[in-house]
Amino acid sequence: MTNPLSSSLRAAILLCSASAVTCLAAQAQTSNPPITDPVAKPEPVIASESGKLPAQSATESQSQQGAVAETNRTIGPIGNFDPLAESSKLKSPNTDASPPPPKGPSADKWQFQFVPYIWFAGLKGQIGIGSRITDVDADIGDIFDHLNFGFMAAFEARKGKFLLLSDLLYLKVSTENVTPGPLFSSAKLTQKVFLLEGDAGYRLLEKEGSSLDAIAGIRFWHLHTRLLFTAGVLPETEDSRSKNWVDGVGGLRGRAFVTKSWFVFGKGDVGGGGSDLTYQLLGGIGATFKERFSLLAAYRYLHVNYDRNNFLFDVGIKGPALGFGIKF
């Protein structure tokens, strides 16, 4: 027969042994964490019921933020289209494209040309002071011998179809090739001619560089004439006189290119007022180079007939001219 006390004792010993084994197994599980596979992908982080993500260490947070920023800089936000980045690409200038070719001068801006020139002008006609009148025929060959001083220049300003023109001329000529008449043995003429012309014009036609302009303006004359008659039948005598007057003039001028660089040009006008009649004819050829410069060669004939107050100047001034044009 079994002793009840011994059975109770054995049951107590077995219960204590089971408790001890259970405690040891739990302690071993806490001290040794499970081994993580480094190749395995991380499990997605699931927010808790409170809506907060589990806390991360500072190092992991900074590493993830740097990776996201680098990704945004290269390909834009993950899984999204970045309109700002695409817009900046569309608006960025094309640095590889060549600049557009320079444009010519605008028709709305003033354009200028200055033309200094030399006119190898001879005189032919009649000049007289009072009752003493002499015939003058100083041709081109004589002008090289007797031209004391000369200055000539033309200026042009243009804006659109409107033009402003000026021409300045000063000549001083001394010659003895004059006819004094039967009462004197010879005569010497010293003639000073100052001419200033100012015109306004309107462009009637322009096509491929060729043009036709209508012009009108005034021509101011200042003359100083000195005549020395050497003794013949009559004793030597000398007369001098100065005169100023203004003529109104009007006419046309034109230019036409025959090649890309070569062109022909001409001008004609007629008028009067202070004089009985004045007119001018000019024609020539020119060549442009480097867009701003041109060489000009022309033949010019300018006639004036002034006969008032005992002063006669009925003369044609004629000869070739050479000029150099500068645009700016």
Radius of gyration: 53 Å
Bin the helical content.
10-25%
What is the N-to-C order of secondary-structure elements (H for helix, E for strand)? HHHEEEHEEEEEEEEEE
Strand content: over 45%
Walkthrough of the structure:
- The protein is of the alpha+beta class.
- Helix content is 19%, strand content 53%.
- The chain has four helices and 13 strands.
- Strands 1-4-5-7-8-9-10-11-12-13 form a ten-stranded antiparallel barrel.
- β7 and β8 form a beta hairpin.
- It is elongated and about 70 Å long.
- The N and C termini lie far apart (142 Å).
- Residues 30-59 and 70-104 have low confidence and may be disordered.
Task: For the structure shown, list the relevant keywords.
19% helix, ten-stranded antiparallel β-barrel, 328 residues, alpha+beta, 4 helices, single chain, 53% strand
Outline of the structure:
The chain is α+β, with helices and mostly antiparallel strands.
Secondary structure blueprint with pairings:
Blueprint: H1 4-31, H2 58-75, H3 83-91, E1 111-119, E2 122-129, E3 132-138, H4 140-146, E4 147-159, E5 162-175, E6 178-179, E7 187-207, E8 210-229, E9 237-257, E10 262-273, E11 277-289, E12 293-308, E13 311-327
Antiparallel strand pairs: 1-4, 1-13, 2-3, 2-13, 3-6, 4-5, 5-7, 7-8, 8-9, 9-10, 10-11, 11-12, 12-13
